[in-house]
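Example: Reverse transcriptase domain-containing protein.
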Amino acid sequence: MVRAFFNGQELPKYVTHTNLVLLPKKNEVTTFSDLRPIILSNFTNKIISKVIHERLVGFLLNIISEEQARFVKGRSIVENVLLTQEIITDIRLRTKAGPNVVIELDMTKVYDRLSWLFLTKVLRKMGFGERFIGLVFGIVSNNWYSVVVNGQPCGFFKSSRGVKQGDPLSPTLFILAAEALSRDATSLKLVMEVLTAYEEASGQLVNKSKSALYMHHSADVEVVTKVERITRIGRKEFHFTYLGFPIFYARRKMDYYQDLITKVMDKLQAWKGKLLSIGGSDGEGGWNVEKSMEILPEEFVVHILEKIKPPIMENTLDVPYWMLKTRGNFSVKSVWEYLRRRNDPTLAYKVIWVKGLPFKIAFFMWKVWKNKLPLDDFMRRLGYCMPSKCWYCIEPKEESLIHLFFTSHAAKIVWKYFLSRQGIRLEGLTLHQAITSCWTVQVLPRIKPIMQALPSCIIWELWKRRNNFKYGEAVLISRVIYQVSSSLQAIVRVRKPCLINVPHKWKDLLTMLENYTPRMKYDKVIWELPMVGWVKVNTDGASRGNPGRSSIGLCIRNDDGDLVYVLGREINAATNTKAEIVAILEALRICSAHNYMQVWLQTDSLLLKNIVEVLLYCGTSGGDLTALG
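Written out as structure tokens, the predicted fold is:
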């Protein structure tokens, strides 16, 4: 159809027909201008428009004046904004020059009123060929409309002017037509004559009620009145908005941005309103202690006031409380934990992503588990009718996920080979049940990850075999079993790097894991005496609950190993790290009080060891460590 159009054929009406839906702009509709037309058209028109537009793009820079920046690739509307700002600033600074006028024009229905005859004349004047002009005229003029009323299309009429909003070609055609306005207008009357001639020729209409003119703040009243009489446009005061940017006349003020601030505040207020419950939005949102006393026991209210401490006084700001943390403070980790659904995960969430299993295999297993593979049965559910063939079977069978991975002859042999060793029988099981049996079978803890990865490896190799058969390469079933065994062997090596000779055969691999006894490695820890003249401080801190009830302990020994100071006491609720910090700070204060200057500090917290080393390296004092607590 697209080729036929470019070869000169007219598009049929069922392609160019468009439904119009009129949506009200305000609550009370009195005129057609209070309605916003929404076009529901055929996408074929946009293909043709896009092709014509792409052919025009390369010429626009050469035929469109530099002052026109919108819809021209390679130009920025920021240039127009900067030029306008420069003009306004120049008007303000030229106090001795004659009165200058800036006219802000608002065109009424710019797309809907564009004359086709005027458009073709402009294109012809610019040097476009008749064949190209005919293509443009054929795409913009062959438009038929129906108005949707109460869900039903009514009427069938042809348009007489205008271009479609949302069409890829419409902005380009509009700026080509508007190029006729680029004239050397040296006077206000000539500008208005040019605008009037443009309105008559193009069918466009300047909306003078929405237009405005701007002049110097000290312009004479008689001059302003004369300008308003010539243009029939009312004067407004600076500043104004051009292409979404505020144009400043004098020094920038906060008031210039008030509209933008108001819009942002309204948007935030709308978001807040959506978060309120229906009942909560009726009140002022404060904490009503008296009402709480009426409906709750007194001890409950006292407990709430002590623990939550809600604001009671009027005009008191609420304190944000992050509900995912017990202490109410926000952390990115808590968001991540919530989004990744760590709380009460299903079995599939836990076991599909086995350590050592390649991500591509685990992800493929996830697609199989969710039945999202583009097999023939899946495509039929989407509405695609196509012939189906199982590439495994000699006898004709339809391809489906269950048949491919579980009920086919090859799949049964592979599953039976690996599951029979663990006593899992396939009779009466579905694919999901067989997979779940591997995940939940009662085996030794060191074998469980291998059994959890087994279904993924089997399904992955069966899928590879299916693709090889489909594209002309035969793969034996024994090869599939070999590849699955290789994958399981690799997983064992990743999880148990201390093992040297990991067998390849499945039964031997299981036997080795069943008989495997891990060897414990012990590191001998010896307490060393400090150097002569030094004291050695050992500290520790712990928290029950983290944060929760906490305590610290420390001891100080001299160079003979004799205890010179011991302390153990409970502190306020804290985390493990804070308890360790308090213990270290307490030990340092005791050493300072007893004039121990040469101190060897030992702690079982690697985190604090690294922090203290960095603080000492940077030359900071113990106060920085206090800030960490």
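The CA atoms of residues 119 and 177 lie 6 Å apart.
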